[in-house]
Amino acid sequence: MALDYKQSAQLRTNLVFNGRIASAALKWSDSILANTAIDITLLENRKSVNYAQQVYANSNGEATRLQPIVVQDPAVQAQDLGEDGDSLITDAYLQSAVETAIDKIL
């Protein structure tokens, strides 16, 4: 069942979910910054590297920035909320939702 507006609003401010988003963003950052063969002369690659560095510098702040976008992802919307208000989405699907959100802001 899709989340209603009230549930979506609650998830946008849920701290546990925020922490999970931060972890996913850091994992994405690791994959970008570990790629030594990346061609930074390309604008898109420079944007990715710069954002990956931003995530390292302020993962919680960037997670807060990403959270509303992640909440609207269809995979997140399709999941129920747990007793703590966190989404029951698996980490693998959350990783994909976070990466999709990052692509939207880059």
What does this structure look like?
The chain is mainly alpha-helical. It has one domain (5-105). The chain is built from 6 helices and no strands. The longest helix is centred in the first third of the chain and has 19 residues, at 15-33. The radius of gyration is 14 Å and the shape is elongated. The protein starts with a helix and ends with a helix. The mean pLDDT is 96.
- In DSSP terms (H or I, runs of 4 or more residues), the helix count works out at 6
Strand tally is 0
- Indicate the structural class: mainly alpha
What Rg do the Cα atoms give?
14 Å
How is the biggest beta sheet arranged?
Answer: none
Task: Kindly estimate the percentage of residues that lie in beta strands according to DSSP.
Answer: under 5%
Principal-axes shape call: elongated
Report the average pLDDT across residues.
Answer: 96
Instruction: State the helical fraction.
Output: 55-70%
Distance between the termini: 30 Å
The overall number of domains is: 1
Poorly predicted runs:
none
- Helix-strand string: HHHHHH
Topology:
Elements: H1 5-12, H2 15-33, H3 43-57, H4 59-71, H5 74-77, H6 91-105
Keywords for this entry:
elongated, 0% strand, 6 helices, mainly alpha
Quickly describe the structure.
By secondary structure, the protein is an all-alpha fold. It has helices at 5-12, 15-33, 43-57, 59-71, 74-77, 91-105.
